[in-house]
Specification:
Strand content of chain B: over 45%
Distance between the termini of chain A: 41 Å
Largest sheet of chain A: 6 strands, mixed
Radius of gyration of chain B: 13 Å
Number of strands of chain B: 11
Structural class of chain B: mainly beta
Shape of chain A: globular
Helix content of chain B: under 10%
Mean pLDDT of chain B: 93
Largest sheet of chain B: 7 strands, mixed
Oligomer: heterodimer
Helix content of chain A: under 10%
Order of helices and strands of chain B: EEEEEEEEEEE
Low-confidence stretches of chain A: none
Shape of chain B: globular
Number of helices of chain B: 0
Structural class of chain A: mainly beta
Chain lengths: 119, 113
């Protein structure tokens, strides 16, 4: 089974600054998807960004961008110009591109990183 | 708002009881997924349905079962509840069988006393 590791239980950033959240994963597959989800205090899971493993270009969504290093199996999330509303738990998730009998297209999540944004 | 709805928002029950959690996917989505989020286990995949058929099973206990109905809504049934079943249960949906992003509902908070 694929494992996802987020080594930073907590991170802190000042408003308007930039912060990077780390994620590593373990897989023997060559084609897959990676995601970052945000969970604010409301507990809603919100999709932040998606990266396809076959794409060399790093995904970007407004202030959110990723640094995808396929050989190193690393997938970090960079948040630029941090805002108070960015404070949340951030989860990295892995999903196989192809269906398999064990887990289908299920998302495998890391344990999460709690991001605190200070004024 | 993701477009995925879950009811109820909160559920408090006693050990040994049975409960049903309900999920309506986004309009047009055929695939439904159930996840459990607890403090000790984190976010874990339980089961996936696609257009009424079971597609994949994760760490779902035998006391738990699910189904997806012809109108595509899904129900997760939890029986013989134990204290350790207290968790946040999420439903997610995607347009087709896995090749698209999963959008999560607001979750059902289950408390077993």
């Amino acid at each position: 089974a694929q494992t996802v590791t987020q080594s930073q239980p907590e991170m802190s950033v000042q408003e308007a600054e930039t912060v990077t959240l780390s994620c590593t994963y373990d897989t023997s597959e060559s084609d897959y998807y990676l995601f970052w989800y945000k969970q604010p205090p409301s507990r809603q899971m919100i999709l932040v960004i998606r990266q396809e493993a076959y794409k060399q270009q790093n995904a970007t969504e407004n202030r959110f961008s990723v640094n995808f290093q396929k050989a190193a199996k690393s997938f970090s999330l960079k948040i630029s110009d941090s805002q108070l509303g960015d404070a949340a738990m951030y989860f990295c998730a892995y999903r196989s591109r192809y269906h398999n009998s064990n887990s289908g297209y299920a998302l495998n999540f890391g344990k999460g990183t709690s991001l605190l944004v200070t004024p | 708002d993701s477009g995925v709805t879950q009811t109820p928002k909160h559920l408090i029950t006693a050990t040994g009881q049975r409960v049903t959690l309900r999920c309506s996917p986004r309009s047009g989505d055929l695939s439904v997924y159930w996840y459990q989020q607890s403090l000790d286990q984190g976010l874990q995949f339980l089961i996936q349905y696609y257009n009424g058929e079971e597609r994949a099973k994760g760490n779902i206990l035998e006391r738990f079962s699910a189904q997806q109905f012809p109108d595509l809504h899904s129900e997760l049934n939890l029986s013989s509840l134990e204290l350790g079943d207290s968790a946040l249960y999420f439903c997610a949906s995607s347009e087709r069988d896995g090749l698209y992003e999963q959008y999560f509902g607001p979750g059902t908070r289950l408390t077993v006393l």
